[in-house]
Amino acid sequence: SKLINLGHLEMTWRSRTHFLPLLVRILHKSRLRYYGKPEKKMDMPYQAYFEIADGSGMMSMVLWNSLCPEWYHSMKVGTVLLLDKYAIKTSYPFKTHPTPGDSQMKRFATIEISLNVRDPPTEITIIPEEMVKPEWGLPEVKYRFITRSELDDLPHNYPCDVIGLVTFVGRVERARKREHSEDFWLYRWAHAIDGTSDQPFILELFATSQPDVFERIHPMTYLVCTQMRVIQVLTENSSRTVYLTTSNESQIFITGWHKGQPYTKDAKVKSFVQWMKSQSEADHIKKTVIGGYYPFPQLPDSFSKY
């Protein structure tokens, strides 16, 4: 019955010792981060960021340590949470920020909600969607879906969401996180078409915290990628190459994972599904490719230019 909203919390947090419960919806979710080091003895050195919102605006929330394996997979984009006995910290300045689908959404950036297993032990309750009431005033999850025909005109680093039919998926490759580092990023290339252009989306998909989805991307699946970034590459002969890459907050979904996701209500997603109903699956299967080495962006044609 007694709640506080994020806007009021930001204004009054310094003068409070006890914080009233929060009722919020998750709008964005980061990949799970492991920050363990050999010299530090910690049981569960994990961390994950979420962007949560109520009627007053949006704020970051951090899930710490042993709460991550317990809660991370249950906390999906669109999930409504009741939070009690949480902590407040000033915001970490070097964190990445997703671009909200609603450009009018106010962002509270000075503080973040911290969920810990102790000091204090946070109480987390997931409210089932059928019990969420309109009078709570929680914002809906909004997206920035683009079509392939719109992609070439978008600026470098533009944030967007895409849906398409997979026609090619490459093998999993590795790239060093830093020079001489023993840590690697895993990624794979994929092509997806949406019927609005002769060209496919070229997607650089880094492994997110969804290994079950990442490993099962295959031709003829409906692929949704959220919070992607546009990469514009100028080649030596002044031609442009454009592709999309994942960000820290990207989520990937394939056939079998779409049910109940908030993006199923989006107009461009519905339009793509209608287009697919008019297509011959057999025709598309003939053009699909899987595996192999995919050199992209294209290398120069001679070693001296390279």
TrEMBL record:
Signal peptide: none annotated. One of its GO terms (molecular function) is single-stranded DNA binding. InterPro entries: NA-bd_OB-fold, RADX. It holds the Pfam family RADX. This is RADX protein.
